[in-house]
Design goal:
alpha/beta
């Protein structure tokens, strides 16, 4: 297994297929069974690869057996569906994640200084190799707060294009989440169009995207056009949360008092699936498998 690493890894294969064919794969944050089912059904109907993303919260609230269920369901799909752990900040959470069958883990040490980030990420990559788990890291600091992430009061630290290649080389990480003005949990007036430094993202992509796919965090709200511009800069993994979840959440809130639970879940999954299918078409992942 180790000799085939990382090419034997599902997330690696999915994102490098996207790299070779210049499209992006959605990484969809799921909180419950409805989300998991919606991602898998959308992927199969669109013949698209997908990544199911879970937070450390899921490991604790729903437990290790839920993680194993998600991985089994994802890997049983008729198209490639990987399972990724997003924003694993605490050391204890990383230790727990390495005991579970994730395809990939985002190790978030971006709150520390750059040298400690490099040392920590490298140590996790070295351990993950034997488990066939690939690693995503954040370079710089993506501002904002979402799903347990700390809110950052200090001015965001942007990823320096000239340092990105050295960071990847020294750590051995397989995917990089750059900070270029993207923000977790909502944008200020002017939105992502004003906040994003696409020239910086393009410069980072020009240096490393040929061998290290870029991951895009902070995607709500973002226009379809802006997503496509990010793809041209080398983004291959696009994290999706409210972008595909809001219609489902509204449906559940509006219908919970009038529908039986079985009907609520069946119809809710259909609503959720349609939102994901649309983004698969936008990102260009539909019809690839």
């Amino acid at each position: 297994m180790a000799s085939d690493y990382p090419k034997a890894n599902l997330t690696w294969r999915v994102l490098h297929h996207a790299n070779a064919n210049e499209y992006a794969v959605g990484a969809y944050n799921c909180y419950n069974v409805d989300g998991v089912m919606a991602v898998i059904r959308a992927a199969e109907s669109q013949r698209s690869a997908a990544i199911i993303q879970l937070f450390p919260w899921t490991m604790h609230f729903q437990g290790p057996e839920f993680i194993r269920y998600v991985v089994r369901a994802a890997h049983a799909a008729t198209v490639p569906v990987a399972v990724h752990l997003d924003h694993c900040i605490k050391l204890n959470d990383v230790e727990m994640a390495l005991t579970l069958p994730f395809d990939s883990i985002m190790v978030d040490a971006s709150l520390g200084d750059e040298e400690s980030n490099i040392r920590y990420c490298k140590s996790i990559v070295d351990r993950a190799r034997a488990l066939n788990i690939t690693i995503e890291a954040e370079m710089g600091r993506i501002e904002g707060g979402e799903d347990g992430l700390p809110k950052v009061d200090l001015e965001g630290v942007m990823t320096r294009p000239e340092d990105a290649d050295a960071f990847v080389r020294e750590t051995g990480v397989h995917f990089l989440a750059p900070a270029f003005g993207n923000i977790h949990g909502g944008y200020p007036p002017g939105g992502a169009e004003k906040a994003w430094d696409l020239a910086r993202l393009g410069a980072i992509g020009a240096r490393i995207a040929s061998h290290t796919p870029l991951a895009l965090h902070g995607t709500h709200p973002v226009s379809d056009e802006l997503f496509l511009r990010a793809v041209t800069c080398g983004v291959r993994k696009v994290n999706m949360n409210r972008t595909v979840r809001d219609e489902y959440t509204r449906f559940v809130a509006d219908s919970a008092g009038t529908l039986e639970l079985t009907a609520l879940q069946e119809q809710g999954v259909k609503v959720y699936t349609r939102s994901i299918e649309r983004m698969m078409r936008v990102l260009g992942s539909a019809g690839r498998y």
